[in-house]
Structure prediction request, 384 residues.
Amino acid sequence: MEKVRVRFAPSPTGLLHIGGVRTAFINFLFARKNKGKFILRIEDTDVKRSTKEAVDAILDGLRWLGIEWDEGPFFQSERMDIYNRYLKKLIERDMVYPCFCTKEEIEREREEAKKKGIPYKYSGKCRNLSKEEREERIRRGDKYVWRFKVPEGDVRFKDLIKGDMHFINSVLDDFIIVRSDGIPVYNFSCVVDDFEMGITHVIRGEDHLSNTHKQILIYEALGIKPPEFGHLPLILGKDREKLSKRHGSVSVEEFKREGFLPEAIINYIFLLGFSLKGNKEIFSLPEMIDEFSIDKVSRTPSVFDYEKLRWINGYYIRHLSVEELLNRGKEFIPERFMEKGVEFVKRVLKEIQGNIKVLSDIPYLVDYFINEPIYEEGKIKEIT
Prediction:
């Protein structure tokens, strides 16, 4: 059996979302359970939207959560020569062609499809240009993209989570794999990197299912065996809509600012959409690895329950030593309160510990002890 190699491959265009955390953590668990490797790849080919701040947020967020990677981070922006090498292979196999259609021409095609009430598909008119015409247009400097020649037929694969999948190729148009500036499109760079990095299993959100169809076609065109695929169901808000900021915190940074503990977030993510036996809800990392199986991942979307997360977070806070609580909650503790002395602060924290759900509760809960006149006079009441 080949050694398991999985990856988490976020785009650095924003903060690390809880959906990304789940994808990363499931890949991490899959690697650890199977004694494999977990690779981190940053898909930063979208130069306009990718930022260093987002890269830092991803790396810092994963480290804070304890999701340690074995290899990487690898950056797609540093791998352009590799993508060009594979593009040449597709050109040699006559599986791609240069498309010179302008934005205006494409827009006219879209409008025509709209008038007819049919989904837009690229007409494929550049597919039939002669070799001489293509070479002449390239020579005179016409802008072009590279499009993949979608073959007739279909694609079938067994999804690790969703079961048997079947896609008809005729629903696709000849999709772009390299832009006019030479930057590869996601589906092409993803295939190349997954192959080059020896990825055996691709586990990601079900919003990538249409990408998987295209990627398998690219694998086949290159004569490469695809990895196994597993698509995780979406995370929803209580209104059954896709989880977003309007439901509450969605990024690691926001949860951290509210005073959630990383171990509580990871514990809750483990429970989210898993079919587990019994009523046990608190798991250590070794227990999660031992309990994990991709077969236990639900096929249906999961509803993110903020109150459940707060309850789990409160559990972990209650089980901290008072020294740990002071250390981990120090940025939430008012300076005026700290001025009363460490020993006094520790006694108060021990008294209120059972009522803390998130560390940001601390200022409210210690307010009484700051403003009580007896303490202002220096008479510290024993707290038991």
Observations:
- The chain is about 45% helix and 15% strand.
- Residues 320-384 form one domain.
- Confidence is low (pLDDT under 50) at residues 374-384.
- The radius of gyration is 26 Å.
